[in-house]
Amino acid sequence: MNRLIDGKVISAAVKERVRNGVSELNAKGITVGLAVIIVGEDPASKVYVANKKKACEALGIISEEYALPENTTQEELLNLIKELNAKKSINGILCQLPLPRHLDEKLIINSILPEKDVDAFHPVNVGKIMIGDYDFVPCTPAGVMEMLKYENIDVEGKTCVVIGRSNIVGKPMGMLLLHKNGTVTICHSRTKNLKEICSSADILVAAVGKANFVTADMVKDGAVVIDVGMNRVDGKLCGDVDFPSVSKKASAITPVPGGVGPMTIAMLMQNTLTAAKRQNNING
Ligand code: NAP
Question: Most buried of 74, 107, 146, 281 (most Cβ within 10 A)?
């Protein structure tokens, strides 16, 4: 391995940029605000929400947390979102997923104003990503692109393989690599010859959700390997990539933990700042 791509260092650089951006807006009398809604008691979701709040506080972003009980009705949640859509001091709205089963996730996401949808899950934002004219990108693939940029890894003309086709990671990841002129293949559970396809990749992104799924025989010598996976094995966090063997072949690789994970919150902060700028007609 030539290089370890350090998500802690890169996310710190993104956060520093956001902190400066927030200060510049504050100097103009503009505040930046993020509302985070959580419904129910999912322990993992609670940790994510607490981390988002902490990141906001560190960067000067005002965070409002709405912790609603498990039995919240659809109407109550939609009313809250309507209120936050209209609230001037709130620039971004995030509804922590998954929602309890009695709530219609699609309907809830669609009710957030696209210009406040800092997760970029609203169909309008999804469509904008498709045509390459976007302000927000889902935070995890946005974080991966930021890592490639920071490391001066040029995507143009490269063979890029993404394993996973979820709406929040795999699909937008493929589109972002395509917009940077990569030649992209998106693989999934029905893909045939996965090993051969992965072995052709100059840039391989794993977003599968299976520990140690990507082994050295699936990786080309000198490939850049990005591990999005977050899996628990015996309570220990690990990625989708078998790091010990793959890191010997890769020219650059992200670790887990300390790779893509820290980027996700940093990009959420970035999207919130962008939302505040757009809503106040400030370019950049
Ligand atoms: P997901 O919705 O479960 O999608 C997993 C994808 O992997 C699916 O497209 C699935 O294919 C594909 N897949 C499953 N088994 C496969 C196989 N044997 N061969 C090829 N493809 C296979 O998961 P996700 O939300 O995209 O997340 C993926 C991973 O990233 C998870 O570990 C998650 O925890 C992690 N994650 C990390 C962050 C972060 O901040 N670092 C953020 C989000 C997610 P089908 O579509 O055919 O089922």
Answer: 146
pTM of the predicted model over 0.85? yes
- Look at the alpha carbons of 49, 53, 59, 63 in this order and tell me if their dihedral is positive or negative: positive
Structure tokens at 257: 């933990």
Give the atom of ligand 1 at the shortest distance from the alpha carbon of 260.
41
Asked if residues 207 and 182 have their Cβ atoms less than 8 Å apart, the reply is no
- Which of 117, 119, 202, 240 is catalytic? The answer is 119
Residue 53's closest CA among 65, 44, 41, 68? 65
Rounded-to-integer distance, Cα 97 and Cα 99, Å:
5
Q: What is the pLDDT of residue 2?
A: 76
Q: Is the CB of 257 under 6 A from ligand 1?
A: no
Average pLDDT per 10 consecutive residues for the chain, totaling 284 residues: 91 98 98 98 93 97 98 98 98 97 97 98 98 95 98 98 98 98 98 98 98 98 98 95 97 98 97 98 90
**DSSP states along 84-123:** HHH-TT--EEEEPSSPPTTS-HHHHHHHS-GGGBTT--SH
Based on the residue annotation, tell me whether 236 is a catalytic residue of this protein.
Answer: no
